[in-house]
Design a protein that fits this description.
Number of helices: 9
Number of strands: 18
Strand content: 25-35%
Shape: elongated
Radius of gyration: 22 Å
Structural class: alpha/beta
Number of domains: 2
Order of helices and strands: EHEHHEEHEEEHEEEEHEEEEHHEEEH
Largest sheet: 8 strands, mixed
CATH class of the largest domain: Alpha Beta
CATH topology of the largest domain: D-Amino Acid Oxidase, Chain A, domain 2
Length: 392
């Protein structure tokens, strides 16, 4: 039996885990990341790739906790995408430099747009009609269009860039090890008989954190799951990255687009239609999606477009009444950091909180290099529409 010594072991190969791995490696820590499925995880690869800046949280006319905390995230990401930030993400495919908000022309929607513009000055701007792009450049569009300083990324490209840089520290793990809490740190008994000793564990496995906490003998922190029923359209569609303003802080519809090699485009739909769709069967959800697009974009021709759905669970820290968390969550107990980023944009925030927690606990990088070689390469997670076997 061989004992491998690390400073930190991370569980979960989504973007929060990968960003944390990169920051720890840069700081000199000896780190190993374990992932059960694929690099890109489950939630990260199923995200819409939006680097939120908080605009949609200000649609009620006041800055919420979410709007203030998340407001700094696009700047951090843009620096990384330019190759000048804390992580070099200059190789990531950017699907859109900006997003749009559009109002339907109704009083409630228009007022939401007005308040968002006042509160989030500098993060959004009203566009003149001659700057409208498809499908909003149609004379049939009666609403208003705003530009948001929030980029949209290709989640698979993002995972691939991280894996190219840090893949030698990422390892597959088909089943959980046996955990033993030491006087300082943890011992992990791997399925192949080898052991790992580490000063601290970092859990960034999303919904999988619950099983990890149980295996570690910990009954907190508690997780809540927010289910979504996302919609996918595939066909000859314009490239759109936009939120439709509703009467509340949650967009009525969020559209992101992914161009395919054959010239077709995938629209990935979130927002209220995805949240309310968890009560619907796939055929019912597709019918609801068709109706929503017919109501919001009636001049767009969707004939010949194929449809599919994707059920995905968004794992978060449990909150009173099940409300959405305002921030990324990181908490430490018994040398275990439990993390739920809440949103893709919060991945740098998770890494910052973990780094701060390690410093507070006096866990510094140790000397030497671990002799732990990756035996099998992990695959990259596939985009949701690549997993669809039958389109309607």
């Amino acid at each position: 039996m061989t004992i491998h010594k690390f400073d930190i072991v991370i569980f979960g190969g989504g973007i929060a885990g990968l960003w944390t791995l990169a920051r720890l490696r840069q700081a000199g820590y000896r780190v190993a990341l374990f992932e059960r499925r694929a690099i890109g995880g489950i939630q990260s690869i199923a995200s819409q790739g939006i680097i939120h800046g908080g605009t949609k949280y200000a649609l009620t006319g006041k800055l919420t906790g979410s709007a203030m905390v998340i407001g700094a995230m696009p700047g951090i990401w843009r620096a990384a995408l330019a190759g000048t930030g804390e992580i070099d993400l200059s190789g990531v495919r950017v699907l859109a430099e900006y997003q749009h908000l559009w109002s339907t022309g109704t009083l409630a929607s228009g007022m939401a747009g007005f308040f968002a513009g006042k509160v989030m000055q500098g993060r959004m701007q009203t566009l003149p009609r001659d700057a409208y792009t498809a499908p909003f450049d149609s004379p049939d569009f009666r609403g208003s269009l705003y530009r948001l300083d929030e980029p949209v990324l290709d989640p698979r490209s993002l995972a691939e860039v991280f894996y190219t840089a840090y893949g030698t520290h990422c390892h597959p793990l088909e089943e959980l090890p046996k955990f033993e809490h030491l006087s300082r740190g943890w011992r992990l008994q791997l399925p192949d008989g080898d052991s790992i000793e580490t000063a601290s564990l970092v859990l960034t496995a999303g919904k999988g954190n619950a099983g990890l906490l149980t295996a570690l003998g910990q009954d907190s922190p508690h997780m809540q799951v927010r289910p979504l029923n996302m919609l996918m359209l595939r066909g000859r569609l314009p490239l759109v990255h936009a939120h439709c303003l509703g009467a509340s802080a949650n967009p009525r519809l969020t559209v992101t687009s992914y161009p395919m090699e054959d010239g077709r485009v995938v629209w990935y739909l979130g927002g209220q239609v995805a949240e309310e769709g968890v009560r619907r069967e796939p055929a019912e959800q597709i019918a609801a999606g068709r109706a929503e697009l017919a109501a919001l974009l009636p001049w767009v021709d969707f004939r010949g477009v194929e449809w599919a759905t994707l059920a995905v669970d968004r794992a978060e820290i449990a909150t009173p009444g099940g409300r959405r968390p305002d921030d990324a969550f990181v908490a430490a107990h018994d040398d275990v950091f439990t993390c739920w980023p809440t949103k893709l944009a919060f991945a740098p925030r998770v890494a910052d909180l973990v780094m701060s927690g390690l410093r507070e606990r006096g866990i510094a990088p140790s000397s030497g290099r671990p002799a732990f070689e990756r035996r099998t390469a992990l695959p990259l997670a596939r985009l949701p529409w690549e997993e669809v076997t039958q389109w309607s």
